[in-house]
Amino acid sequence: MKNLSISLTPAKCELLDNILNEFDKEVYIKSDRVLKIFRGNDTLASDYLELLVQMNLVILVGQVDGVPLPAMVGKQAGVDMFISEGGFKRRYALNKLEEDTGKSIFDLKNENLDLKDKVEKQEKLLKNLEQSITKINFTALRNLK
Fold first, then answer.
1. Which of 7, 33, 121, 144 has the most CB atoms lying inside 10 A of its own CB?
2. 4 pLDDT exceeds 70?
3. What is the DSSP secondary-structure string of 33-75?
């Protein structure tokens, strides 16, 4: 088995997710279903399947030397959870967000909570100031009479 390294893009993540979604409730699927995703490009389909094998998401059944695709592809345990959590596209988006911001999701959530807390405090302060101004204006108007 060759050790593949694919630079992921949203389109590549979608292809990987499409392969995993092809299983639906089935444990095994015929390789021709994967081949349809890649519009008949068996070499490209084989590369993506190898990547999924390396990640322990699928197994290849009935592989023959000289033939790019196996007879069947089997779904490993955990694939359904992986897909339900957003699959490759969600992980790509989270990694991209982390790269762009330089912060992890955990850090961003904490920062968001801190900002919400600051907004809440500022809103309370503003409300108190408005009440104070109203009282001062009311007192000033009474004193003018």
1. 33
2. no
3. HHHHHTTT-HHHHHHHHHHHHHTTSEEEES--TT-SS-SEEEE
Same domain, 36 and 96: yes
Segments forming the whole domain that contains residue 28: 10-101
Cut 0.70: pTM above it: no
CA atoms within 13 A on the CB side of 126: 6
pLDDT digit string, tens, across residues 48-66: 999 999 999 999 999 888 8
Are residues 97 and 64 part of one domain? Answer: yes
68 and 116 part of one domain: no
**How far is 120 from 51, CA to CA, in rounded Å?**
47
Please write down the long-range contacts of 59-62, taking CB distance under 8 Å and 24 or more positions apart. Answer: 61/28
Could you give the CA distance from residue 120 to residue 25 in angstroms, rounded to a whole number?
Answer: 47
User: Which residue in this structure is represented by tokens 């790269």?
Assistant: 99
Residue 1 lies in a domain: no
